[in-house]
Design a protein that fits this description.
- This protein has 14 helices and 14 strands.
- It has a five-stranded parallel sheet, with helices on both faces. Strands 7-6-8-9 form a four-stranded parallel sheet, sandwiched between helices.
- It has helices at residues 3-23, 47-65, 82-95, 107-120, 150-163, 177-192, 211-220, 232-243, 259-265, 267-270, 285-298, 304-323, 328-337, 386-389, and strands at residues 29-36, 70-77, 100-103, 123-126, 143-145, 168-174, 196-203, 224-228, 251-254, 274-277, 349-350, 356-357, 360-365, 378-384.
- The chain has two domains: 26-148 and 283-354, Rossmann fold, CATH 3.40.50; 151-277 and 360-386, 3-Layer(aba) Sandwich (Rossmann fold).
- Strand 8 (224-228), helix 8 (232-243) and strand 9 (251-254) form a beta-alpha-beta unit.
- By secondary structure, the protein is α/β, with parallel strands linked by helices.
Length: 403
């Protein structure tokens, strides 16, 4: 065979192989759906910032990996409602050929979409929702819970506050699955560390007027009022507790707070508070480099939800390339067997229950005079190792876990 003919044959063979690999990606296009709160209580900690983080992941993946397939993004506001979320996910899967639905802040929306994803054999990547139900009773084999959960944040914050002398607690709880989960997990930690829960009151989600609930907390005489809520519910609770003179007589424990909450309230109002995060923009050179890029696009430093969103999308896209296709089970198998090593998580791993385990961090908010530059808000008081941060598999109720 002449050299030119041989070269042509080899090129044709490689072309056929490449075409076969591409053909395994449906329509040669990976479509990512970002379903999040764009206008409500959680829009600041997730919302448009999560969409921007997804765009960054896609851009970075294309630049570095140069995939043979295309990548598109669609986004929608789920308004923190499970029915809207499940309907949108179904529409995306059935009509718009979406391969993976991501973010899903608010537990009710995550649980609703997980069911649709399982029915359609598509992947759900959860960053913003918090309840441990996602990897316990309601777990499935197409969902990964990426950033944090109520067990992890309670394990950090509640334990730290009890050890600092906050022995008696009263909870102010958002009345839906997330709030209930956070109250339970925090109550367990308080009791396990020698504290006592005096009671709880549940408020509608989302809320604006917390006066009656705060007065009940005040009347309890508890040393600590545990805020088992998030987003604007938390910031409004803190503001109104100050206005009513409840603080500093009683302490507040923000059981799920974000750097955007601290930024909104200011260091004077939040100084000294403990909180548990999966990510801090100012932790090291890697986190600073990525966060400054994010800031250039959004004019805000990222929350752990937004950083986790980037990380989850990037890991998924690597899985598609590594398996040469968008087959749900093959991509999920690759994601679970492949460690996560990026600016968000070091030596992270996805367990059989779908939980990404990684280090968490106990933070304490700085005093105003301790902050040296913009968004310099935290002291990192403790690194909570991955093995300790999340609920152990021995306690899991997930049917995927072999015992």
């Amino acid at each position: 065979m002449k050299r030119s003919t041989l070269a042509a044959a080899v090129a044709a063979a490689f072309g056929l192989a490449a075409g076969a690999a591409q053909a395994q990606v449906s329509d040669n296009m990976v479509k990512i759906g970002v379903l999040t709160d764009m206008s409500g209580a959680y829009s600041d900690l997730s919302g448009s910032g999560a969409v921007e983080a997804t765009k960054m992941a896609i851009e970075d993946f294309k630049a570095k990996e140069k995939p043979a397939f295309g990548i598109e993004i669609v986004a929608a506001d789920h308004q923190n409602k499970g029915d809207i979320s499940s309907n949108k996910a179904r529409e995306w899967f059935d009509r718009e050929k979406v391969d993976v639905v991501t973010e899903l802040v608010t537990t009710s929306t995550a649980l609703a979409v997980m069911k649709v994803a399982k029915e359609k054999n598509k992947i759900a990547l959860v960053s913003g929702a918090a309840s441990t139900r996602i990897t316990n009773d309601d777990c499935n084999d197409v969902t990964v819970h990426w950033t944090y959960d109520t067990y992890a944040v309670a394990n950090g914050t509640a334990k730290a506050v009890v050890k600092q002398g906050g022995k008696s607690w009263f909870f102010l709880t958002a009345d839906y699955a997330f709030g209930h989960s956070l109250e339970k997990d925090s109550s367990d930690v308080v009791a396990a560390n020698g504290g006592k829960v005096l009671g709880a009151v549940r408020h509608p989600f989302p809320g604006t007027d917390f006066s009656s609930f705060l007065l009940k907390a005040q009347a309890s005489g508890a040393q600590v009022i545990g805020l088992a809520n998030a987003g604007t519910d938390t910031t409004n609770s803190i503001k109104q507790a100050s206005e009513f003179g409840i603080t500093p007589k009683q302490s507040l424990a923000g059981l799920l707070m974000f750097i955007t909450d601290v930024h909104s309230l200011g260091l004077k109002a939040t100084q000294g508070m403990y909180l548990t995060e999966a990510f801090y923009w100012d932790a090291n050179d890697e986190t600073r480099a990525w966060s400054k890029r994010f800031f250039e696009r959004t004019k805000k430093m990222p929350t752990m939800v937004q950083a986790g969103q980037y990380s989850s999308v990037m890991h998924y896209l690597k899985g598609v390339k590594a398996t040469a296709g968008d087959d749900t089970q093959k991509v999920m198998a690759w994601m679970k067997k492949t460690p996560v090593n990026d600016f968000f998580a070091k030596n992270g791993s996805i367990r059989e229950d779908g939980r990404l385990v990684h280090d968490m961090y106990l933070m304490q908010v700085k005093k105003p005079e301790e902050s040296k530059y913009a968004w310099d808000y935290y002291h990192v008081r403790q690194t909570i190792p991955a093995a300790e941060a999340f609920q152990p598999l021995a306690l899991s109720k997930c049917p995927l876990v072999k015992k």
